[in-house]
Specification:
By secondary structure, this protein is of the alpha+beta class. The protein is 19% helix and 32% strand. Strands 1-2-3-4 form a 4-stranded antiparallel β-barrel.
Length: 101
């Protein structure tokens, strides 16, 4: 059970494929227009429930509750040793190497 007032992430389909504008590309027309938004939960709920949230801009949005206390899960990949070499080369080209530090 996620309590009222928790920071959460919700999802909903804004437009189904049949409702998409005729001028959008064909591949876009085949999928729904989706919305993911974060906000403060307005009543106790469980994951998967239809809920209302209040966003930081004070808008009310409805959708399916996905998670509580969402955070970014991306990164920029694994370490690439070659980038250290390139970084040093760029520094030498731009600033003349160690003599100009």
């Amino acid at each position: 059970m996620i309590k009222k007032g928790e920071w959460v992430l919700i999802h909903r389909n804004v437009l189904e494929p049949s409702q998409r504008a005729p001028q959008v590309p064909d591949d876009t027309k085949q999928v729904p227009l989706e919305l993911w938004v974060k906000g403060y939960l307005q009543s106790d709920a469980n994951i998967g429930d239809e809920v209302t949230v209040l966003t930081r801009t004070k808008r009310e949005e409805r959708g399916t509750l996905l998670e509580a206390n969402p955070y970014y899960k991306h990164d920029f990949g694994k370490f690439v040793p070659e980038l250290l070499v390139v970084s040093e080369q760029v520094r030498d080209i731009l600033f003349g190497g160690a003599d100009n530090e």
